[in-house]
Every structure is written in structure tokens, then in C-alpha cells.
């Protein structure tokens, strides 16, 4: 919706036809609308008091090593990809438990907060791209320090790592015991190891020796000293995740109901959003049109209109106001088809003196509403009157009155009857007046004499014989009566 409002915003900001005062007011309202849209997008919330909730499951922390050594190919396709697939199996089979996911190199980063929503965790995992990670080393000490800060009594930590070059684990073991961290260490790699490569070239140290990465043996010692468990993920076909899950289920100390504090946030984005919408419509419409918009938005109705309708409606009203009726009708035609849009087009064409087109639009409207029907017949009667089709106008007015009494229709119908009466009177005036008996007798004698004269002329001009078949042939050949040619 926000992206839809932007082009409309630009349209109204750059409208050259508006007066300076109106344009200034409109611009101010549109900028305010945009300001509240930005606030709405910032998702303002009120943090409520955390609630304690119990759920039948455990809290687990997964830590994935994404250092450069995890790109080694001793596990196919790579150590990182095999570890990633194993984590996915754990997440999908243990959806009732809560998991948080960390990734680490020399630094540690949270990519998925504690959640029982497997989809969120998988999305976070899939969005990770190790090739964009700039740091190359591995710091297990930094990881344990970060995990120790989490507000959990018992911290079950699943670590997928090759161990890097960590040598001294005394500090790590001390931190784990102090902060109740139980490590499930999944050694990702092989004891034989693999040569690290950059592109197609092997990496060499300062003494020009090949750099070989393999499982750090101190990982097993770390797990044993902290009371955790140790696994070797040497092949993607080995079901290490299921073994881990089985070990977790068999540990009675872990299968307890967990109490967590959940923070609920009350969303407030809808308040600035409503203000933005109201200001936007105040900018592009007049006050009485705004009431119509509000009614259209909040009252149920069967009409289907689009947001662009408000733009075209505003332009149509402006054209109508400035007596540009044809342009107004064109803008009304761009609205979603409805009784109102057709009616407005008809009125605009009537004002433009396009009476035949106006009748076409009025006649297309079908409605069961008696008032609308009566209005349509009245308007069609007016169009017929302008076209001097008085009989048709009379029919339209009679139809309007058959629905119910209408003062305007009745008045116009009376005008038609008066007009017809006047026409008959004018016709009678143009007729000759009645003459006296003497005048009539004289006129009759004159008429008889005239008739006799015409008969004599016909006898002279007409041939003395009737034309037969042969006569027609002679005429065709050119033999005609010269006195009276064919």
C-alpha cells in the first residue's frame, strides 16, 4: 500500500493546475502524510512486562564454526555444508524444543534468537554466506564467553567445529563449569585432514609448507572434562544428529519442563498509518468528498472500486466546476464502472449539449431503486425536449410520474401539452378565413372555368389515338409526336 501511495503523492505535488494557496495546503498535507508513513514503517512498539511461560521441551544453543578451515574438502562437498545439513536434521526432528543459532570465527554472532519456529531458524541458516566472512581464524574462548552471558540456568551447547588451532583448553573448561555449560562437541572433519586451498591454489605458510587442516584432538578432552559428549562427523552419511538426539532423550537431567520469560510487544504502527491515510485523502479531496471516501471505506457495499478512482474523481469534479464538460466526462469514464460513474457521464454530456450521447448513458443504467429510475426518466425527458422530440419526452415524463409524483416531471409534462396546444392554434391562424355565400359562388364559377380551360389544353396536347404495341416500337425508333414529345 505504501508503494502505491508514492506515485499518487508525486502526481499531486507536481499538479500545475492548482492555485498557489490550494497547492501549498495540499503539499503540506502530503508531506505530513509521508512523514507518518515513515513512522509507521519504523514499527513503533510498547514493551510489556515479560511473562513467565512453561513449555514441555528443552533449550538448546547451536554454534557453527564458519572459519576458513571449514571450507576444507575432506568431507564432501565441504565441512561447512555437511555441518549445515546436520543442523537442519536436528531442527526438523526436534521442533518442540527451543533453539538459538550462533556462528563464530574469531568473533561470535547470533543469527537466530531462541525460538520453537523451525522455519525461522532454517531461513537464518540458509541466508548465511561464509564466503563473505572476512575473519579467518577460530576462537572457541570468545564463543564460550558469549554463551556464558545468556540468561539460562543450564546451557546445552552443540558445537560444530574442527577445533581450529586452539591449544590451551583450561580457560574454556573453567568457563563451562562456572556457567553450567554442557558441550555437545561434533568434530567436523577427518583425523587425516585436508590441504586448504584458495581458489585452485593450495595455501602455504611463511615457510612455504602446505597448510593442512584436521580435527583438533583437544575437542575430545574438552568434552570429557566438562561432562559433555563428543562425536566425530567424518562423513555426511553418518547419522550423528540422530545419535545426538537419542543421547539428549536418554539424559534425565535434560528432559524437564523449561520456564522462560517471554517479552510481548504491543504494535502501534497502525496509528500513524491511519493518520497518514487521513491526511492523504484530505490533501487530494474536498471535505465533503472525504466523508464519501470514509463511508465507502467503512460501510459494506457491493461496488468494487480502485484507489486510482479518487484521483480521476477529483479531476472530473475540477473540470466540471470549470465548465469543461467533455474532459469531465472523459475522467468519469476512467472510474470503475458503476451507476454513479455512468450517471455522472450522462450529466456531463448533457451539460456539453451532447443530448443523444447523454441519453445513451442514462439508458445503460439498470437499477431497482425507484428514486434512481425516476431521476433517469426525468433526465432522458429533458434530453428529448432539447432535441425537440416532444412525443418521446412526454413518454419519459409519464414513466417518471408512474413511479411516483415528481414536481419537476409534472411541470415539464404540462409544458409539453401547452406547447402542443399553442402549435395547433398557430396552425389555425395560418388557415384562410371562411368567405360569404356570394364570394364562394364566384370562386366556384372561377374554378369551373379554370377546369374547362385545362381540359381543352389536355385535348390539344394528347394524341388522338391510343398507343399500341407498334406505336411503342415507332417511339423507340425515334418516330414521336412532335407536338407532344415522349
Give a structural overview.
The chain has 486 residues and is α/β, with parallel strands linked by helices. It has three domains: 2-44; 51-262, 3-Layer(aba) Sandwich (Rossmann fold); 306-428, Serine Threonine Protein Phosphatase 5, Tetratricopeptide repeat. The chain is built from 19 helices and 14 strands. Helix 3 (79-93) links the parallel strand 3 and strand 4. Helix 3 (79-93) packs antiparallel against helix 4 (118-126). The protein is rod-shaped and about 150 Å long. Residues 297-305, 430-437, 462-472 and 474-486 have low confidence and may be disordered.
Number of helices: 19
How much of the polypeptide forms β-strand, as a percent range?
A: 5-15%
Shape: rod-shaped
Please give the domain count: 3
For the sheet with most strands, the description reads:
6 strands, mixed
The helical percent reads 40-55%
The poorly predicted ranges are 297-305, 430-437, 462-472, 474-486
The overall pLDDT average reads: 76
β-strand number: 14
Please list the strands of the largest sheet in the order they lie side by side. 5-4-3-6-7-12
CATH topology of the largest domain: Rossmann fold
Q: Which structural class is indicated by helix and strand composition?
A: alpha/beta
Q: Please, what is the CATH homologous superfamily of the largest domain?
A: von Willebrand factor, type A domain
What is the straight-line distance between the termini?
87 Å
Radius of gyration: 49 Å
CATH architecture of the largest domain: 3-Layer(aba) Sandwich
What is the CATH domain class of the largest domain?
Alpha Beta
Amino acid at each position: 500500500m505504501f508503494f502505491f501511495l508514492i506515485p499518487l503523492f508525486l502526481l499531486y505535488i507536481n499538479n500545475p493546475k492548482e492555485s498557489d494557496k490550494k497547492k501549498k495546503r495540499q503539499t503540506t498535507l502530503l508531506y505530513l502524510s509521508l512523514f507518518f508513513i515513515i513512522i509507521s514503517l519504523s514499527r513503533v512498539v510498547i514493551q510489556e512486562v515479560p511473562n513467565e511461560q512453561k513449555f514441555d521441551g528443552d533449550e538448546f544453543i547451536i554454534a557453527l564454526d564458519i572459519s576458513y578451515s571449514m571450507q576444507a574438502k575432506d568431507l564432501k562437498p565441504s565441512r561447512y555444508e555437511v555441518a549445515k545439513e546436520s543442523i537442519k536434521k536436528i531442527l526438523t526432528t526436534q521442533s518442540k524444543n527451543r533453539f538459538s543459532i550462533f556462528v563464530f570465527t574469531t568473533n561470535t554472532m547470533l543469527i537466530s534468537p531462541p525460538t520453537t519456529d523451525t522455519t525461522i531458524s532454517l531461513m537464518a541458516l540458509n541466508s548465511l554466506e561464509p564466503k563473505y566472512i572476512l575473519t579467518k581464524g577460530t576462537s572457541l574462548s570468545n564463543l564460550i564467553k558469549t554463551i556464558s552471558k545468556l540468561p539460562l540456568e543450564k546451557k546445552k551447547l552443540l558445537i560444530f567445529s574442527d577445533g581450529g588451532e586452539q591449544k590451551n583448553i583450561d580457560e574454556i573448561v573453567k568457563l563451562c563449569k562456572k556457567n553450567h555449560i554442557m558441550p555437545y562437541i561434533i568434530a567436523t572433519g577427518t583425523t587425516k585432514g585436508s590441504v586448504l586451498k584458495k581458489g585452485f591454489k593450495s595455501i602455504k605458510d611463511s615457510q612455504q609448507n602446505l597448510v593442512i587442516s584436521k580435527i583438533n584432538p583437544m575437542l575430545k578432552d574438552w568434552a570429557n572434562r566438562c561432562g559433555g559428549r563428543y562425536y566425530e562427523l567424518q562423513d555426511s552419511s553418518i547419522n550423528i544428529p540422530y545419535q545426538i538426539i537419542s543421547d539428549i532423550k536418554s539424559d534425565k537431567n535434560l528432559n524437564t519442563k523449561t520456564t522462560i520469560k517471554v517479552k510481548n510487544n504491543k504494535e502501534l504502527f497502525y496509528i500513524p498509518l491511519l493518520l497518514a491515510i487521513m491526511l492523504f485523502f484530505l490533501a487530494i479531496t474536498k471535505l465533503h468528498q472525504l466523508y464519501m471516501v470514509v463511508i465507502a471505506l467503512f460501510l459494506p457495499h457491493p461496488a468494487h472500486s480502485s484507489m486510482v478512482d479518487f484521483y480521476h474523481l477529483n479531476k472530473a469534479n475540477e473540470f466540471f466546476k470549470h465548465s469543461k464538460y467533455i474532459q469531465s466526462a472523459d475522467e468519469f469514464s476512467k472510474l470503475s464502472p458503476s451507476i454513479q460513474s455512468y450517471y455522472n457521464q450522462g450529466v456531463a454530456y448533457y451539460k456539453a449539449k451532447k443530448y443523444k450521447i447523454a441519453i445513451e448513458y442514462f439508458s445503460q443504467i439498470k437499477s431497482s431503486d425507484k428514486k434512481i429510475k425516476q431521476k433517469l426518466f426525468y433526465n432522458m425527458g429533458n434530453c428529448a425536449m432539447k432535441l425537440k422530440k416532444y412525443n418521446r419526452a412526454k413518454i419519459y415524463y409519464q414513466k417518471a410520474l408512474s413511479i411516483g409524483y415528481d414536481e419537476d416531471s409534472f411541470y415539464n409534462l404540462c409544458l409539453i401539452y401547452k406547447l402542443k396546444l399553442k402549435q395547433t392554434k398557430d396552425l389555425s391562424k395560418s388557415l384562410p378565413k371562411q368567405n360569404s355565400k356570394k364570394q364562394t359562388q364566384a370562386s366556384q364559377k372561377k374554378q369551373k372555368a379554370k377546369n374547362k380551360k385545362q381540359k381543352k389544353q389536355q385535348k390539344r396536347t394528347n394524341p388522338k389515338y391510343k398507343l399500341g404495341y407498334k406505336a411503342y416500337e415507332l417511339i423507340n425508333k425515334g418516330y414521336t409526336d412532335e407536338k407532344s414529345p415522349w
